[in-house]
Amino acid sequence: MSLEYILAPPLVILTQMICPNIWGIASVLLSFLSSNRVYQIRNRFSALYLGHSMTYECWCPTLVRGVGSSNLKTLNTETQELSYVKSRSDKQLRSKAYEHDTSTCDPEGTLPHDIPIVPCGLIAWSLFNDTYGFFVDNQSIDVSKKNIAWKSDKDKKFGKDVFPKNFQSGSLIGGAKLNESIPLSEQEDLIVWMRTAALPNFRKLYGRIERDLDVDTKITVVIQNNYNTYSFGGKKKLVLSTTSWIGGKNDFLGIAYLTVGSLCLFLAVCFIIVYVVKPRPLGDPSFLSWNRNPSGHPN
């Protein structure tokens, strides 16, 4: 004889009352870690003329030990357009055997005479090409490009035997060029860029500053503005940020958990009202269809 558990109203109400506490604690912790432990410096430079450079100075707001990160934040971009997102060939990115698989990459799939472009598609073609130089006390700071992409992307989505070929060789250049002697699995700028965002406002990790910075250290940034966002009304920001074990500054998870917890609390209150106002005995046979309609015919 097996035991079966029935979701009685009190058990459902109790569960709905416990969940808000769990989600609420999680939201507070995540908000504290992402907001109070992470420091950011932001600078918008979209007003800079295309092809020009500018120098920007900022001061480190806290003691940084270990690794900081520099991010590009773009606003109001068009990367969420369906035609843009679909313009790529995942098979071509994974294996050299699919070099000619460019049917989904229009209009940046092939050169004249069906010569394939590797990597093909509008996403790769529009690879971000602004450059940044960082200086402290008139000495250049190295920005590491290693481990800025997801390991799963490097290992499974970009082949070690796939090398750039005929890239940015057309009449219209879209963005940065790639080193044809380095496989796609090691070109992490491309891998980061190829992971398209779901929303028009997003960030892309540019690199990591792997050195210690003291409080009030002056950081000089030289920005070369090459990437054209003016044609579609886009904006760009450079974000210098520290990180925590859950990543950079991001309030989304905390807000999401708080929303779910509030919804659970609302449902618990609704269940309590229904249970008190119109209670229903558990296992009442009068609610069975043949007891409600003795004649055997539905109402």
From TrEMBL:
Pfam families in the cross-refs: CDC50
InterPro entries linked to this entry: CDC50/LEM3_fam
GO cellular component: endoplasmic reticulum; Golgi apparatus; plasma membrane
Main location: membrane
Keyword Phosphoprotein: no
Subcellular location: Membrane
Record keywords, A-Z: Membrane, Transmembrane, Transmembrane helix
Entry's transmembrane regions: 12-33, 255-277
Protein name: ALA-interacting subunit
Organism whose genome encodes this protein: Papaver somniferum
Taxonomy of the source species: Eukaryota, Viridiplantae, Streptophyta, Embryophyta, Tracheophyta
